[in-house]
Sequence to fold (706 residues):
Amino acid sequence: LKPRPQPSESIFLIAIGLAASVLMLASRLAGQGAAPGLTLLTRDGPRPLAISVVSDQEFVALDELAAAFQLAVREEPGAVSVSYKGKTIVLTPDQTIASVAGRMISLPTRPVRSGGRLLVPIDFLSRAVGPIYDARIEVRRASHLVVVGDLRVPRVAIAIESLPVGMRLTIDASPQATSTLTRDGDQLLIKFDADALDTTLPAPAPQPFLQGLRRVDAVTLAVDLGPRAVIYRSSNQVIDTTARLSIELLPPATETAATPAPVPAAPAPPAPPVLPAADPPAFGQPTSAIRTVTIDPGHGGADEGARGVQGLLEKNLTLIVARRVKGLLEARLGLRVLLTRDDDRHVAFDDRAAVANNNKADLFISLHANASLKPGATGASILTAAFPDEARTRQELVPERVPVFGGGSRDIELVLWNQAQIRYIDQSAVFMRTLQERFQGRVPLDVRPTGRAPLRVLASTNMPAVLVDLGYLSNPEQERQLANGEFQGTVAQAILDAVVLFRDYLAHGAGAER
Amino acid sequence: MTRSSALSAAALVLVAAVLAWLLFVGLPRWYATSRAPQAPAPTEAAASPAEAERKIKARLFYVSDDGRSLTSVEREVPYGADSGAQAKAILEAQMAPAAEPLLSAVPSGTRLRAVFVANGEAYVDVTGDVISALPGGSLNELLTVYTLVGALTANLPAVNAVQILVDGKEVDTLTGHVDLRQPLTRNPEWVQ
Fold:
């Protein structure tokens, strides 16, 4: 996170927000008709710029532009010159062509006179004023903003969707802007590290999980929580140049944990006992249910992994199966599923773990295919992590009492990033055995179906994690089987079944361990 | 001085001289003569062809019949004067082409660049062939790594853990699976 803005900066940002609101309102009351005015956003604060509509075209008055940008306007017979620090625009009335610092540009429409004022089309700002002005001028017509200079004004798009139990807000800021999420009573505050926001807030009808969305100041949005939204979970993700913040508004953990999984093909798990009504957990605490799963398709890019004799590449197989598992888990269980890669590219080991850790995934499944020097080797196997000095490290994991924000203290275990998995070794082993059990009879298993090894990709994962070798590409018969779409579907279904059982285990059997 | 006291002093000097000769000349000579056949000086040993071919027995590791783990066989390898030299001799024997029906998990062409032993840990530096010639798959990589780890930890009490370096550098993994960022101890799970 970036450092908090200084007080003077905060005051400036709040001033921008308040002034923008007041000016927007004022311009509407001033009778600009259907065309709301533009708002110039500059370092000196926001400033309104009225729009006039003539023949369905939007214009701004040249004298207003001159005042806003300190332009010198001189009218001569047959021409109007507009100067800024020695650079000049020469406009010829009734012409769509203008000269800007000696270069010709075209305007979408001719300048017009109205009430003694010369009006120029809005594009005059970016096409003519921009090239002679000291700072960049960006016109955002959809939001009626003109961003002057290097102000950071990300476009913020908000999508609201219902979950099987709960609601998800997806907030995309582009170009990416870091945001800080805090809770204040019944509202979540999202403060962006920016100078202003370019956003139109959706206005959903009040619902059990979400009352509404508000703008608090120039860079802060508020989410008003509904009465059922007891827990929230958030995650950050960067997609190209967009920073995505996902917020899930959820009921108490006990409610979601007891929700039966809508999986007709899954083996019937033992009926979940009705849990006693517990106190709602504190915000941000982990819950025992599985909400987010990270699937890691092994290898990628120049790293092809193992290669079958008929040409099947491990990196392609793992991606195909990962997508199938993701589709099933999302559609059948309503889980949030993240892939560490969704195309053919190299992803560093730590970045794979980071996708899971930064999104607080509850389960990490790395998919691979095996190869052996013995061509007869066949079958799937599942591995969990091992560490060279595991016993000693686990003994040293004594909770440390640390003060927490707002007073009080909390016991936390401090563990090195490259040994994070050490806390979850037992749970990972349970999931490994569950997978083995679900594969049995459907997916051929290796003669040694489970094992432990110091696996690089699992070491830093901060949740139960396994590596699944789907079969041997060195075995031609198995290679054909692995390439078969039906078989891939069977594997994906078996993994889904294991996730269902493991979710029940976490909810009822091992909640206290977490 | 009386005559008797003069005789006594002469006798004492004589006894002291005899004792000094015995202590500083006679005893070392006798000791050197008695030890010589059992412990020749290193320079003498190096010069002797019989000592240069001195062997010790070591357990070397190869892929098991089912391909899922490693199995050990006992082989004679050259004697090394210290743990570093002995580690080198064992690894060179382990990395030499295996005679049928043995199958080595270390890719052929891989050569030992250097080995250092310090504080119970061995650092084994091998050529990049260990990566380029290794077929993919976690099992192949595990068996390659534990072949090198087992060859040293099973034969040298002074080595508890082994870190593998490739072309003189630390590596994350060989082919994307086994964490090689720190020394690995022996792992019975991958050895029969």
